[in-house]
Amino acid sequence: MTRSFTLIPFLGAIKKLPRPLEELNIRVHNDLDQQVWDELHKLSGLRKVSVWCMEGPPRVLRGWSERLGPTLTHLELGRCAGVPPTILIAVLMDLPKLESLCLKGAPASAITSILAVLPNLKFLDTEYLPSVRSRGPPQSAKQPKLESLIVRTSSADYLGPGKLWTWIHELLPGPEASLQSFSLHAFILSVMGKGRVAVPRGVMLELGRVHGTTLRQVLLGDAQLTLADIECMCEMCPQLEVLACCTVVEISKLDSVKKAIACGKYLRALTLYIVWIPALKITEAKSPFTLDVARDWMLRSEDSCLRYIAVNDLYFMGKWVLDEENEGSIPEGGSGEGSTEVKGGQENSENSRRPRLKFVVTLDQPKDLWYMRFGSELGVTKA
Q1: Where are the alpha helices (DSSP H) in 201-327?
Q2: How far is CA 306 from CA 104, 270, 302, 381, in A?
Q3: What average pLDDT does this structure show over 347-357?
Q4: Are 372 and 308 in contact (CB under 8 A)?
Q5: What is the distance between the alpha carbons of residues 166 and 324, in angstroms, rounded to a whole number?
Q6: What are the backbone dihedrals phi and psi of residue 97, each rounded to the nearest 5 degrees, phi first?
Q7: What is the reported pTM?
Q8: In Å, how far from its chain's centre is CA 120?
Q9: What 8-state DSSP symbol labels residue 352?
Protein backbone atom coordinates (compact mmCIF):
# COMPACT_ATOMS: atom_id res chain seq x y z
CA MET A 1 0.00 0.00 0.00
CA THR A 2 2.31 2.75 -1.20
CA ARG A 3 0.16 4.46 -3.84
CA SER A 4 -1.75 7.56 -2.92
CA PHE A 5 -4.98 6.40 -4.59
CA THR A 6 -5.07 3.49 -2.11
CA LEU A 7 -4.03 5.30 1.05
CA ILE A 8 -5.91 8.60 0.67
CA PRO A 9 -9.39 7.02 0.93
CA PHE A 10 -8.13 4.92 3.84
CA LEU A 11 -6.98 8.04 5.70
CA GLY A 12 -10.30 9.66 4.92
CA ALA A 13 -12.10 6.75 6.57
CA ILE A 14 -9.88 7.07 9.66
CA LYS A 15 -10.94 10.69 10.11
CA LYS A 16 -14.59 9.61 10.18
CA LEU A 17 -14.15 7.12 13.03
CA PRO A 18 -16.39 7.84 16.06
CA ARG A 19 -13.32 7.95 18.27
CA PRO A 20 -10.07 9.62 17.22
CA LEU A 21 -7.15 7.41 16.25
CA GLU A 22 -4.61 7.05 19.09
CA GLU A 23 -1.83 4.93 17.57
CA LEU A 24 -0.26 4.99 14.10
CA ASN A 25 2.56 2.73 12.80
CA ILE A 26 4.08 3.47 9.39
CA ARG A 27 6.51 0.86 8.06
CA VAL A 28 7.36 1.08 4.38
CA HIS A 29 10.41 0.51 2.23
CA ASN A 30 9.63 2.93 -0.58
CA ASP A 31 8.73 6.48 0.32
CA LEU A 32 5.07 7.50 0.37
CA ASP A 33 3.76 10.13 -2.01
CA GLN A 34 3.88 13.67 -0.69
CA GLN A 35 0.09 13.82 -0.93
CA VAL A 36 -0.11 10.99 1.61
CA TRP A 37 2.24 12.76 4.01
CA ASP A 38 0.19 15.95 3.66
CA GLU A 39 -2.92 14.04 4.71
CA LEU A 40 -1.10 12.34 7.57
CA HIS A 41 0.03 15.71 8.88
CA LYS A 42 -3.62 16.66 9.34
CA LEU A 43 -4.12 13.93 11.96
CA SER A 44 -4.13 15.02 15.60
CA GLY A 45 -4.85 13.45 18.98
CA LEU A 46 -2.35 10.61 18.44
CA ARG A 47 -0.63 9.15 21.51
CA LYS A 48 1.77 6.75 19.77
CA VAL A 49 3.50 7.25 16.41
CA SER A 50 6.09 4.99 14.76
CA VAL A 51 7.67 5.94 11.41
CA TRP A 52 10.04 3.60 9.58
CA CYS A 53 10.51 4.73 6.00
CA MET A 54 13.69 3.35 4.42
CA GLU A 55 13.80 5.42 1.21
CA GLY A 56 13.26 9.06 0.36
CA PRO A 57 13.99 11.97 2.69
CA PRO A 58 14.04 11.16 6.43
CA ARG A 59 10.62 11.63 8.01
CA VAL A 60 10.99 13.14 11.47
CA LEU A 61 7.53 14.75 11.97
CA ARG A 62 8.68 18.12 10.66
CA GLY A 63 5.52 20.14 10.06
CA TRP A 64 3.47 17.67 12.11
CA SER A 65 4.97 17.90 15.59
CA GLU A 66 3.01 21.00 16.66
CA ARG A 67 -0.29 19.25 15.96
CA LEU A 68 0.81 16.15 17.89
CA GLY A 69 2.36 17.98 20.84
CA PRO A 70 -0.66 18.07 23.18
CA THR A 71 -1.16 14.28 23.18
CA LEU A 72 1.89 12.36 21.88
CA THR A 73 3.62 10.23 24.55
CA HIS A 74 5.39 7.50 22.49
CA LEU A 75 7.50 8.10 19.38
CA GLU A 76 9.71 5.94 17.14
CA LEU A 77 11.74 7.48 14.32
CA GLY A 78 13.46 4.72 12.40
CA ARG A 79 15.61 6.88 10.13
CA CYS A 80 17.19 10.10 11.36
CA ALA A 81 20.53 9.81 9.52
CA GLY A 82 21.39 13.05 7.76
CA VAL A 83 18.91 15.16 9.70
CA PRO A 84 20.67 18.16 11.31
CA PRO A 85 20.53 18.02 15.12
CA THR A 86 18.94 21.47 15.20
CA ILE A 87 15.93 20.16 13.24
CA LEU A 88 15.57 17.10 15.48
CA ILE A 89 15.70 19.25 18.60
CA ALA A 90 13.22 21.77 17.15
CA VAL A 91 10.76 18.98 16.33
CA LEU A 92 11.05 17.31 19.73
CA MET A 93 10.65 20.61 21.55
CA ASP A 94 7.05 20.55 20.30
CA LEU A 95 6.48 17.21 22.09
CA PRO A 96 6.91 17.96 25.82
CA LYS A 97 4.66 15.07 26.88
CA LEU A 98 6.89 12.39 25.35
CA GLU A 99 7.52 9.51 27.75
CA SER A 100 9.06 6.99 25.32
CA LEU A 101 11.47 7.78 22.47
CA CYS A 102 13.25 5.50 19.99
CA LEU A 103 15.73 7.15 17.59
CA LYS A 104 17.76 5.45 14.85
CA GLY A 105 20.54 7.34 13.14
CA ALA A 106 20.68 10.39 15.38
CA PRO A 107 24.22 11.59 16.20
CA ALA A 108 25.36 10.95 19.76
CA SER A 109 26.22 14.61 20.28
CA ALA A 110 22.55 15.54 19.83
CA ILE A 111 21.05 13.09 22.32
CA THR A 112 21.94 14.99 25.50
CA SER A 113 20.48 18.18 24.02
CA ILE A 114 17.34 16.28 23.03
CA LEU A 115 16.91 15.01 26.58
CA ALA A 116 17.07 18.56 27.89
CA VAL A 117 13.85 19.45 26.04
CA LEU A 118 11.90 16.32 27.08
CA PRO A 119 11.26 16.67 30.83
CA ASN A 120 8.81 13.74 31.03
CA LEU A 121 10.88 11.16 29.13
CA LYS A 122 11.17 7.79 30.89
CA PHE A 123 12.20 5.36 28.13
CA LEU A 124 15.02 5.98 25.63
CA ASP A 125 16.18 3.59 22.89
CA THR A 126 19.00 5.09 20.85
CA GLU A 127 22.27 4.40 19.04
CA TYR A 128 25.72 5.65 19.88
CA LEU A 129 26.96 7.16 16.62
CA PRO A 130 30.17 9.13 17.26
CA SER A 131 30.10 12.59 15.73
CA VAL A 132 31.76 15.96 15.99
CA ARG A 133 31.00 17.31 19.43
CA SER A 134 28.46 20.11 19.28
CA ARG A 135 27.55 22.53 22.01
CA GLY A 136 25.58 20.58 24.57
CA PRO A 137 22.71 21.80 26.72
CA PRO A 138 23.46 24.41 29.38
CA GLN A 139 24.54 22.96 32.71
CA SER A 140 21.40 24.43 34.27
CA ALA A 141 19.22 22.32 31.93
CA LYS A 142 17.39 19.61 33.87
CA GLN A 143 17.70 16.10 32.45
CA PRO A 144 14.65 13.79 32.60
CA LYS A 145 14.63 10.92 35.08
CA LEU A 146 15.04 7.98 32.72
CA GLU A 147 13.67 4.66 33.93
CA SER A 148 14.82 2.57 30.95
CA LEU A 149 17.81 3.07 28.66
CA ILE A 150 18.76 0.97 25.62
CA VAL A 151 22.03 1.77 23.81
CA ARG A 152 23.12 0.16 20.53
CA THR A 153 26.59 0.48 19.04
CA SER A 154 29.54 -1.28 17.40
CA SER A 155 33.26 -0.65 17.34
CA ALA A 156 36.63 -1.93 16.17
CA ASP A 157 38.07 -1.35 19.65
CA TYR A 158 38.02 -4.16 22.24
CA LEU A 159 36.94 -1.71 24.94
CA GLY A 160 34.18 -0.31 22.77
CA PRO A 161 33.88 3.19 21.32
CA GLY A 162 36.25 5.45 23.21
CA LYS A 163 33.69 7.94 24.51
CA LEU A 164 30.72 5.58 24.78
CA TRP A 165 30.98 5.15 28.55
CA THR A 166 31.29 8.87 29.28
CA TRP A 167 28.34 9.53 26.99
CA ILE A 168 26.19 6.97 28.83
CA HIS A 169 26.90 8.70 32.13
CA GLU A 170 25.88 12.01 30.55
CA LEU A 171 22.49 10.49 29.83
CA LEU A 172 22.17 9.35 33.47
CA PRO A 173 23.67 12.17 35.50
CA GLY A 174 21.77 11.68 38.74
CA PRO A 175 22.11 12.56 41.55
CA GLU A 176 18.63 11.12 42.13
CA ALA A 177 18.28 7.42 41.31
CA SER A 178 15.67 6.65 38.65
CA LEU A 179 16.96 4.01 36.22
CA GLN A 180 15.24 0.61 36.46
CA SER A 181 16.48 -1.08 33.29
CA PHE A 182 19.75 -0.75 31.35
CA SER A 183 20.36 -2.61 28.08
CA LEU A 184 23.49 -2.54 25.94
CA HIS A 185 23.68 -3.95 22.42
CA ALA A 186 27.38 -3.69 21.63
CA PHE A 187 29.89 -5.73 19.66
CA ILE A 188 33.31 -5.22 18.12
CA LEU A 189 34.40 -5.85 14.56
CA SER A 190 37.78 -7.47 13.98
CA VAL A 191 39.61 -9.59 11.43
CA MET A 192 38.21 -12.62 13.28
CA GLY A 193 34.65 -11.41 12.80
CA LYS A 194 32.24 -10.30 15.48
CA GLY A 195 33.66 -10.01 19.01
CA ARG A 196 32.62 -8.90 22.50
CA VAL A 197 32.95 -5.57 24.22
CA ALA A 198 34.58 -5.53 27.65
CA VAL A 199 32.68 -3.20 29.96
CA PRO A 200 35.08 -1.23 32.19
CA ARG A 201 34.54 -1.78 35.90
CA GLY A 202 34.28 1.95 36.54
CA VAL A 203 31.22 2.14 34.31
CA MET A 204 29.30 -0.45 36.33
CA LEU A 205 30.48 1.02 39.64
CA GLU A 206 29.24 4.47 38.65
CA LEU A 207 25.94 3.02 37.42
CA GLY A 208 25.50 1.21 40.73
CA ARG A 209 26.54 4.23 42.77
CA VAL A 210 23.96 6.54 41.18
CA HIS A 211 21.11 4.15 40.36
CA GLY A 212 21.78 1.16 42.60
CA THR A 213 18.65 1.62 44.69
CA THR A 214 16.30 1.48 41.68
CA LEU A 215 18.07 -0.70 39.11
CA ARG A 216 16.20 -3.98 38.46
CA GLN A 217 17.46 -5.13 35.07
CA VAL A 218 20.97 -5.12 33.58
CA LEU A 219 20.98 -6.65 30.11
CA LEU A 220 24.39 -6.49 28.47
CA GLY A 221 23.94 -9.23 25.88
CA ASP A 222 27.39 -10.38 24.75
CA ALA A 223 29.25 -7.59 26.56
CA GLN A 224 31.73 -8.99 29.07
CA LEU A 225 31.94 -8.48 32.83
CA THR A 226 34.36 -10.09 35.25
CA LEU A 227 33.01 -12.15 38.14
CA ALA A 228 34.14 -9.37 40.46
CA ASP A 229 32.03 -6.90 38.45
CA ILE A 230 29.01 -9.20 38.70
CA GLU A 231 29.49 -9.44 42.46
CA CYS A 232 29.71 -5.65 42.72
CA MET A 233 26.50 -5.22 40.73
CA CYS A 234 24.62 -7.63 43.00
CA GLU A 235 25.93 -5.80 46.08
CA MET A 236 25.33 -2.25 44.83
CA CYS A 237 21.93 -3.02 43.26
CA PRO A 238 19.95 -4.87 45.95
CA GLN A 239 16.74 -4.79 43.85
CA LEU A 240 18.38 -6.45 40.83
CA GLU A 241 16.04 -9.05 39.29
CA VAL A 242 17.43 -9.72 35.81
CA LEU A 243 21.09 -9.95 34.77
CA ALA A 244 22.52 -10.92 31.38
CA CYS A 245 26.16 -10.69 30.30
CA CYS A 246 29.24 -12.60 29.19
CA THR A 247 31.98 -13.68 31.60
CA VAL A 248 35.03 -15.91 31.88
CA VAL A 249 35.12 -18.82 34.36
CA GLU A 250 37.70 -21.46 35.13
CA ILE A 251 36.03 -24.79 34.52
CA SER A 252 37.07 -26.18 37.90
CA LYS A 253 35.74 -23.13 39.80
CA LEU A 254 32.08 -23.10 38.87
CA ASP A 255 31.14 -22.21 42.45
CA SER A 256 32.78 -18.82 41.92
CA VAL A 257 29.72 -17.80 39.88
CA LYS A 258 27.38 -18.85 42.68
CA LYS A 259 29.46 -16.78 45.09
CA ALA A 260 29.34 -13.77 42.74
CA ILE A 261 25.53 -13.72 42.71
CA ALA A 262 25.14 -14.50 46.41
CA CYS A 263 24.01 -10.94 47.22
CA GLY A 264 21.35 -11.01 44.49
CA LYS A 265 18.48 -11.69 46.88
CA TYR A 266 15.78 -10.77 44.34
CA LEU A 267 17.57 -12.10 41.27
CA ARG A 268 15.09 -14.22 39.31
CA ALA A 269 16.57 -14.46 35.81
CA LEU A 270 20.27 -15.02 35.06
CA THR A 271 21.64 -15.28 31.54
CA LEU A 272 25.36 -15.91 31.15
CA TYR A 273 27.49 -16.60 28.12
CA ILE A 274 30.46 -18.24 29.81
CA VAL A 275 33.86 -18.62 28.20
CA TRP A 276 35.24 -21.70 29.94
CA ILE A 277 38.93 -21.84 30.85
CA PRO A 278 39.95 -25.52 30.83
CA ALA A 279 41.84 -27.06 33.75
CA LEU A 280 45.46 -28.09 33.26
CA LYS A 281 44.60 -31.76 32.89
CA ILE A 282 41.66 -31.15 30.57
CA THR A 283 42.23 -30.37 26.91
CA GLU A 284 38.58 -29.61 26.07
CA ALA A 285 36.58 -26.97 27.92
CA LYS A 286 33.32 -28.90 28.24
CA SER A 287 30.57 -27.16 30.18
CA PRO A 288 30.24 -28.48 33.74
CA PHE A 289 26.83 -26.82 34.15
CA THR A 290 24.19 -29.47 34.79
CA LEU A 291 20.61 -29.76 35.99
CA ASP A 292 21.77 -30.34 39.57
CA VAL A 293 23.96 -27.23 39.46
CA ALA A 294 21.02 -25.14 38.21
CA ARG A 295 18.85 -26.48 41.04
CA ASP A 296 21.56 -25.72 43.59
CA TRP A 297 21.80 -22.11 42.38
CA MET A 298 18.04 -21.63 42.39
CA LEU A 299 17.72 -22.97 45.95
CA ARG A 300 20.88 -21.34 47.26
CA SER A 301 18.82 -19.81 50.10
CA GLU A 302 15.33 -20.18 51.57
CA ASP A 303 14.20 -16.87 50.09
CA SER A 304 15.86 -17.29 46.68
CA CYS A 305 13.78 -15.94 43.77
CA LEU A 306 15.99 -17.33 40.99
CA ARG A 307 13.80 -19.33 38.61
CA TYR A 308 15.49 -18.99 35.23
CA ILE A 309 19.13 -19.69 34.35
CA ALA A 310 20.68 -19.71 30.88
CA VAL A 311 24.31 -20.73 30.40
CA ASN A 312 25.42 -20.61 26.78
CA ASP A 313 22.95 -22.87 24.94
CA LEU A 314 21.41 -24.46 28.07
CA TYR A 315 18.16 -23.06 29.49
CA PHE A 316 16.84 -24.09 32.90
CA MET A 317 13.41 -23.25 34.31
CA GLY A 318 12.50 -23.98 37.93
CA LYS A 319 9.20 -23.88 39.80
CA TRP A 320 7.39 -25.30 42.82
CA VAL A 321 4.62 -27.78 41.93
CA LEU A 322 2.20 -29.92 43.93
CA ASP A 323 3.66 -33.38 44.55
CA GLU A 324 0.53 -35.46 43.99
CA GLU A 325 2.28 -38.78 43.39
CA ASN A 326 4.31 -38.68 46.61
CA GLU A 327 1.89 -36.87 48.92
CA GLY A 328 3.00 -37.32 52.50
CA SER A 329 6.39 -38.79 51.61
CA ILE A 330 9.72 -37.45 50.50
CA PRO A 331 11.05 -38.98 47.28
CA GLU A 332 14.64 -40.12 47.34
CA GLY A 333 15.44 -39.21 43.80
CA GLY A 334 14.34 -36.83 41.08
CA SER A 335 11.36 -37.36 38.83
CA GLY A 336 11.53 -37.88 35.09
CA GLU A 337 11.02 -34.17 34.57
CA GLY A 338 14.22 -33.03 36.22
CA SER A 339 15.86 -32.41 39.56
CA THR A 340 13.45 -31.97 42.51
CA GLU A 341 13.30 -30.67 46.07
CA VAL A 342 10.39 -31.26 48.48
CA LYS A 343 9.04 -29.01 51.24
CA GLY A 344 5.90 -28.75 53.40
CA GLY A 345 4.31 -31.05 55.99
CA GLN A 346 5.85 -32.93 58.97
CA GLU A 347 6.40 -36.56 59.82
CA ASN A 348 3.38 -37.14 62.07
CA SER A 349 0.32 -38.86 60.63
CA GLU A 350 -1.85 -35.74 60.60
CA ASN A 351 0.58 -33.48 58.80
CA SER A 352 1.64 -36.21 56.39
CA ARG A 353 -1.75 -35.78 54.71
CA ARG A 354 -1.04 -32.17 53.89
CA PRO A 355 -0.10 -31.34 50.30
CA ARG A 356 3.61 -31.30 49.63
CA LEU A 357 5.46 -29.20 47.12
CA LYS A 358 8.41 -30.23 45.05
CA PHE A 359 10.80 -27.99 43.17
CA VAL A 360 11.19 -29.11 39.58
CA VAL A 361 13.97 -27.92 37.29
CA THR A 362 13.62 -28.62 33.60
CA LEU A 363 15.62 -27.98 30.47
CA ASP A 364 13.35 -25.63 28.59
CA GLN A 365 13.65 -22.65 26.27
CA PRO A 366 11.77 -19.50 27.32
CA LYS A 367 9.33 -17.87 24.97
CA ASP A 368 11.48 -14.78 24.58
CA LEU A 369 15.17 -15.63 24.19
CA TRP A 370 15.88 -12.14 22.84
CA TYR A 371 14.72 -10.55 26.07
CA MET A 372 16.94 -12.75 28.19
CA ARG A 373 20.04 -11.34 26.48
CA PHE A 374 19.11 -7.92 25.23
CA GLY A 375 15.82 -6.83 26.76
CA SER A 376 12.20 -6.35 25.78
CA GLU A 377 9.01 -6.78 27.75
CA LEU A 378 9.67 -8.89 30.83
CA GLY A 379 8.67 -12.51 30.15
CA VAL A 380 9.72 -14.37 33.30
CA THR A 381 7.07 -14.83 35.95
CA LYS A 382 7.77 -15.09 39.64
CA ALA A 383 7.26 -18.54 41.12
Answers
A1: 201-211, 227-236, 255-260, 291-298
A2: 35, 8, 11, 11
A3: 64
A4: yes
A5: 56
A6: -90, 5
A7: 0.85
A8: 20
A9: G
